[in-house]
Amino acid sequence: MMDDRIGRLFPAGGPVPVDLVIGRKGDIEEIVRRSREAIHTMLTGPRRIGKTTVCAAVCEQLRQDGTVVVDIEVPERTDAKDLLQLVVDRSNRISRSGAARGLLRVALPLIEQTLADQGIPLDLGQLAGQPGSLPTRKILALPLALSEERDQPVVLFLDELQRAADYADGEQLLGDLVDLYSGNTKVVVLVDGSDERALDGMLGAPAQFGKLVDRLILDPRISADIWRMGLAERFVQAGLELAPEALEKLIEFGEGRPYPTMTAARYAALGARKLGSAAVEAFDVQMAIDEARRHLAEDDHA
């Protein structure tokens, strides 16, 4: 049987499962608090520091508290159609799940009925026309319909929203979000992004997205003390003994940054597995760091 513990315990290169997040507890709690207080938030910072991980953890905690979450990964496209399709699909799925559990006593789930009343198909591919002619505002308002349908707060999470700044109809989409949700307390908008130039352009004219969101910058580094505790525990969970000097080398290499730290730790654990060893020494970690440097260099040029 394949042992997948290394991949799970040392996640690198993507969102981290909520139960494996290291060192972001305070950030998660802060954004949960903001969301409960109806503060629209934009989480920003460099690539590969855990913005999506933090926001996903926030969404998971809010779901457990009864908040409806519409989570969207903003696609890299030329216009907003695919993004709007995701809003339709996610909203309709939530609406239908409520109807299936008997929460709603209607013949047709509200989202489907709302779209039908406005002449909007579930499949936006059926709509013809140029960017800018889509019923953008009506679709972006679907989370409001969900809030009314469920009589619950809704969080609209848009991951990597800065991609929309390059859409042919991006200005319209961002402007509609501002108009719909500024001052709105039924739906709270949570967005993240890493492209500083695009984000700065969104916040100012002409999009004026800064009128909607309060910007929060995520620290790209996690303290060495937190890494010492977190990494040591991960190696124990993997059935490996990490020498104190080896632990310090990992922390020194990563300089507090999540992606390089966890990448090197993963290579160290994989190396021990390959050798059939239960101990990870400083020499093993140095080899893992060399491998991590190659990996990170390739990723930077990808």
Structure characterization notes:
- There is one protein chain.
- The chain folds into two domains: 194 residues, Rossmann fold (3-Layer(aba) Sandwich), CATH 3.40.50.300; 79 residues, Helicase, Ruva Protein, domain 3.
- The model has no long low-confidence stretch (mean pLDDT 91).
- The chain is of the alpha/beta class and 302 residues long.
- The strands form two sheets. Strands 2-3-4-1-5 form a five-stranded parallel beta sheet. Strands 6-7 form a two-stranded parallel ribbon.
- The chain is elongated.
- Strand 3, helix 8 and strand 4 form a beta-alpha-beta unit.
- The two termini are 33 Å apart.
- The protein has 13 helices and seven strands.
CATH C-level name of the largest domain: Alpha Beta
**Strand adjacency order, main sheet:** 2-3-4-1-5
Q: Whole-number average pLDDT?
A: 91
- Overall radius of gyration: 22 Å
How many structural domains does the protein architecture include?
2
Number of strands: 7
Main β sheet profile: 5 strands, parallel
Would you identify the regions where 5 or more consecutive residues have pLDDT less than 50? none
Summarize the helix and strand pattern as letters.
HHEHEHHHHEHEHEHEHHEH
The SS-based structural class is alpha/beta
> From the coordinates shown, what is the CATH architecture of the largest domain?
3-Layer(aba) Sandwich
Percent of residues in helices comes to 40-55%
Instruction: Indicate the CATH topology of the largest domain.
Output: Rossmann fold
Secondary structure tally, helices: 13
Shape: elongated
